[in-house]
UniProtKB/TrEMBL annotation:
GO terms for molecular function: nucleotide binding. This is Oxidoreductase family, NAD-binding rossmann fold protein. It comes from Quillaja saponaria. Residues 142-266 form the GFO/IDH/MocA-like oxidoreductase domain. Pfam families: GFO_IDH_MocA, GFO_IDH_MocA_C3. Belongs to the Gfo/Idh/MocA family. The lineage of its organism: Eukaryota, Viridiplantae, Streptophyta, Embryophyta, Tracheophyta.
Amino acid sequence: MSGKPKPNPIRFGIMGCAEIARKVARAITLAPNSTLYAIGSRSIDKAKKFAAMNKLSDAVKIYGSYNQVLNDPGVDAVYIPLPTSLHVQWAVLAAKKKKHLLLEKPTALDVAELDQILEACESNGVQFMDGSMWWHHPRTAKMKELLSDSQNFGKINYIYSTSTMSPTPQFLENNIRVKPDLDALGALGDLAWYCIGASLWAKNYQLPTTIVALPDITRNSDGVILSCTASFEWNQLNGTTVATIHCSYLSHSSMDLAIYGSKGSLHVNDLIIPYQENSASFDYAAGAKFTELHLGWNKKPEELCVGTELPQEALMVQELARLVEGIRNNGCRASSKWPEISRKTQLVVDAVKKSIDLGCKPVNL
C-alpha cells in the first residue's frame, strides 16, 4: 500500500491493529494531503504482521508500543481504533504530546470521559475528529441541501434510522464490542452512534428534548447491549419532530435513513457504508400525492446519484489533514465543529443508556 510522494503531507501514526485500521490506513494513503508515517501495536510482531498484510511502504515506521508512536516527533496526527475503555487514557496522552486526533467511535464510555479528551485537545491546540465516515461523503452535503429547502421539503416531522448486522457466533462470543471491560456500550455505542448522529444531523444538531428507550433490549450474559430501540422528541415552537432508531447485532445488515417532511421525503439504504466507493444515491420526493381513487401516485421518488473521486474514509482523512495544515502552517485555531458534533452524539448515547438503566423511563435533555 504505497502512493506517490506528496508535498509536505500530514504524517499519521496508527495506534492499534484493529480491522478498521486497515481501512483507515488505506484512506491515509489515498488522501492527497496525508501519509502513513508509523504503525504501533502492543507487540512488534503484530505491527509487522499488519504492515505485511496491508503491503505498507518500507518507509512506514513499525513500533511495538503505543508510546513509541506518540513519542515520535515525526508524527503529526494519530488514529486511535482501540477499545472504547482505553480511549480516555490514550487520547488524552496523545493530545498532551501535541498529536492531532482521529478517534474511533464511540468516542468514550460517557460524556465525562469525552470531556476529558476534548479538554486535553483544546488546551494543547490539537484538532479532534471522530471516525464517522459518512459525514464526509458528498452525498451527505447534497441530502442536507435538499432537507434545508423548506419550500419543497417543508418541516421535518419524522426520522427513522437503523444500523444492524448479523455477525458470526465467534463475533458474539469473542469480539471486543461484546466485552464489558473493553466496549461496555455494545451495540449502543458501536451501531447507534450512526443512527443518533444521523438524527442530530437532520435536525442541524439541535439536541432532542426527550429521549426514551423502548423495552425491546437484548443483552448478552455479561450484560452488554446487543440490540435496542429508542425514540427522540424535539418539542419546538413550530411543532414536534420525532425520531426512532434501532441498532442490533441480531438482525440482517441495514443502514437505513428515512426523513419525512411536511412536503417531501428522503430515503437512503446505505448511509454508513455506500454500496459503491465512487458513487452513492438516495431517493427524494417532493409533492408526491395519491391519484384519483388512490389507484397510484402522481410521481415516483427521484433517485439522485452523487459521485466522488475519493472514498468517504479518504475524504475524512483529507478534511482532518486540511484542518491540521491550517494549524501548522497558518496558526489557525482547531475547529470546534467536529468536537461539538461528537459531544452532542455522546450526550444522546448517554441519555439512551440512562433511559435503559431506569427501566425505559423518559430522560430530558
